[in-house]
Amino acid sequence: MKRIVGVVFLIFIQSFLNAQEDQKASKLSFNGDFRFRIEQDWDSKKSDGTYREDRTRLRYRLRFGFTYDYQDWVSFGARIRTGDPKKQQDPQLTLGSGNKEFGGLQVALEKAYAEFYHNWLTAWIGKNTYPFEKQNELFWSDNVFPEGVAIKTKFNFDNSVLQSLSINAGHFINATNGTSFSEDSYFQGLQAVGSFLNNKVVFYPSIYYFNKMPDIPDGNETYLIDYSILNLGTKFQILDKPKIITGIDYYTNLNNLNENNFIPQNFRDQKNGIVASASLGKLNDKGDWKVLVTYAYLEKYAAVDFFAQNDWVRWDYSSQGSPDGRLTNFKGFEFMAGYMLGKKMNLKLRFFAVKQLIPTEIAKETGNRVRLDFNIAL
To answer: Is the pLDDT of residue 65 over 80?
Structure first.
């Protein structure tokens, strides 16, 4: 598998070099980015009351992909990335970790899809970007690319109240059982997105159903859980110059967790979450700047923790045989400050402070983290 991915990567690079002179007139286009990260973690208490060692890491990520416009109604594409293929939330690699002594890089296929277009309808099949409206990664990480079928319809209106209405839907398979679709571990979503008041207000009610999700990812589960999560999300653009945006997401799991006897009693009512944010500025052109403050309160079953972000704190399932993060059952905040060094080049400084809501053992886990990212893209 590693050899196949390596060959695909070389083909991408060779195609990229051969196509540069004629790229504007070609149906083939390329995308890619590089990130270098400096990260410090401290004051990270474990569930047994002891503290993790403070940690400093230097990390990086490289992604490279292509899209090909086969006809005016269909295109296809793919993208590869660095990172452990088993860690869908985290494509970053740590300098000096894993492949030591300057060995080869871990590379995985991140996207592979075909996309279709017809007037007000778009759809894709394969493995691609999360197709639902969101304004942060607290419910679904930007690094997690679902596999399945997605459909979007969009209607535009010529009035001062409602400018557009979109309906997004999809069916995505987490793990197939090899029998009927109903026995798969899968995720379905249905969402309406309305843009109001000259696109200053966006409202996106959504319902997500997760069938037979494992309590521990990567094949180490002890039981399965169903989720039915209602998300009411909205964002407001208060000013254009300077750009000020506020947003809020409310999550509630409609399933009765008392019917699952495997779930500990003290977690059966932990089904709600709220995320609120406010930002000033923008990151579009050279010289732009932006600051963002986000508050999160997510109970254990308000989201599927191994599909959500793993940025805020260093909690994971490593003690249960999985490298994935477990980022629910916490409250905390993030502060971000960013500056555009060029059209597609920026610096982002992020600070996180987190505390667990309900301890899994004798103590509530905690964590503080600061990151400085340098990002550059094609």
So the answer is: yes
Q: What is the mean pLDDT of residues 30-54?
A: 96
125 vs 12, 145, 210, 233, CA distance in Å? 21, 12, 19, 26
Asked if 216 contacts 222 with a C-beta cutoff of 8 angstroms, the reply is yes
CA 29, CA 198: separation in Å to the nearest integer? 32
In a domain, 102, yes or no: no
Whether the predicted pLDDT of 24 surpasses 60: no
Per DSSP bridges, beta strands 107-118 and 147-156 are unpaired
| pLDDT value for 3 | 54
Beta bridge mates, 205: 232
pLDDT at 182: 87
In a domain, 81, yes or no: no
Query: For all residues of the chain together, what is the average pLDDT?
Result: 93
Q: Which domain holds residue 259?
A: 32-61+118-377
Tokens matching residue 317: 């399932």
More confident residue, 160 or 236: 236
Mean of the pLDDT values across residues 126-133? Answer: 98
Cα separation, 96 vs 102, in Å, equals 8
Query: Is a pLDDT exceeding 60 seen at residue 305?
Result: yes
CATH number, residue 179: 2.40.160
146 domain residue, yes or no: yes
Q: In terms of DSSP H, where are the helices of the chain?
A: 2-19
* Cα(225)–Cα(185) distance, integer angstroms: 10
Asked if 307 contacts 325 with a C-beta cutoff of 8 angstroms, the reply is no
Domain count across the chain: 1
Per-residue b or e along 66-100, where b marks 16 or more CB atoms closer than 10 Å to that residue's CB: bbebeeeeebbbbbbbbbeeebbbbbbbeeeeeee
Asked, for residue 68, whether it belongs to a domain, the answer is: no
